[in-house]
């Protein structure tokens, strides 16, 4: 079992003889795809730590910048052309689009990310953050729904969910049972049983509880890990938000498996 804390300065010699794979001769590029406000920071920490422990190369970037020596590749908006990838195995995570809007709205009110502070002509020279702050919460959620979250949700809708190289899973399932879902992911990557247990230890180190020091549901508005809850839209969306969502996104919730009809 991997110790909870380990030094990243372990000798490269030791790492060289440590492998997570069942068969190194069948090793493939590991690709993880997700979206803004769908566990990106969470997976960066986990995958980077796994790579460090096993002496692998982790890269978080767009596909055009993918290096030949990369072992674990993360594309945070899932914009990958699989036909141009080397032999790969992957994971792809989605989240309830309604919660993406809520998470995105509250995050974009305070984020220091550079893009949110660039004046935009289409927003009357306001930055995206200033634009959201110009509304009350009801209107701000609608603005977010038509803003960056719309781009994210449309990207999720366009994804090919029938690619057998990718294991598909939902943020909600992962939050509910982290160890079971992570074990499936690591097994899909071709990790051996010892490595799966080691990687579960790494994943637990970066769980919501251990990173935030809060129970799920306790809100910290200015944290990347805001609440750790799922289904917040039920408390925050009003009738106007529901109506606008259905008008913009149509049957996306049915396609993604979050609803069976549009009567929600």
TrEMBL record:
GO MF, one example: sulfotransferase activity
Highest taxon of the lineage: Bacteria
Lineage: Bacteria, Bacillati, Cyanobacteriota, Cyanophyceae, Pleurocapsales
Protein name: Sulfotransferase domain-containing protein
SUPFAM superfamilies: P-loop containing nucleoside triphosphate hydrolases
Sequence ranges assigned to domain Sulfotransferase in this UniProt record: 93-254
Organism in which the protein naturally occurs: Waterburya agarophytonicola KI4
């Amino acid at each position: 079992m991997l110790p909870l804390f380990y030094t990243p300065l372990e000798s490269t010699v030791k790492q060289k003889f440590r492998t997570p794979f069942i068969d190194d001769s069948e090793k493939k590029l590991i690709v993880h795809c997700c979206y803004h406000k769908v566990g990106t920071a969470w997976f960066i920490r986990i995958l980077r730590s796994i790579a460090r422990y096993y002496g692998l190369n982790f890269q978080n970037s767009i596909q055009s910048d993918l290096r030949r020596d990369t072992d674990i590749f993360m594309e945070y908006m899932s914009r990958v052309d699989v036909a141009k990838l080397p032999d790969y195995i992957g994971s792809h995570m989605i989240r309830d689009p309604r919660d993406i809007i809520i998470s995105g709205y509250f995050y974009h009110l305070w984020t220091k990310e550079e893009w949110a502070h660039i004046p935009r002509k289409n927003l009357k020279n306001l930055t995206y953050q200033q634009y959201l702050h110009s509304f009350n919460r009801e209107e701000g959620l609608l603005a977010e729904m038509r803003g960056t979250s719309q781009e994210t949700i449309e990207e999720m809708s366009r994804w090919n969910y029938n690619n057998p190289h990718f294991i598909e899973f939902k943020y909600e399932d992962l939050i509910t049972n982290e160890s079971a879902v992570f074990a499936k992911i690591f097994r899909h990557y071709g990790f051996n049983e010892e490595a799966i247990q080691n990687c579960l230890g790494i994943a637990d180190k970066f769980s919501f509880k251990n990173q935030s020091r809060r129970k799920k549901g306790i809100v910290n508005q200015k944290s990347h890990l805001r609440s750790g809850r799922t289904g917040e839209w039920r408390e925050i969306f009003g009738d106007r938000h529901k109506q606008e969502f259905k008008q913009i996104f149509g049957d996306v919730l049915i396609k993604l498996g979050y609803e069976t009809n549009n009567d929600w």
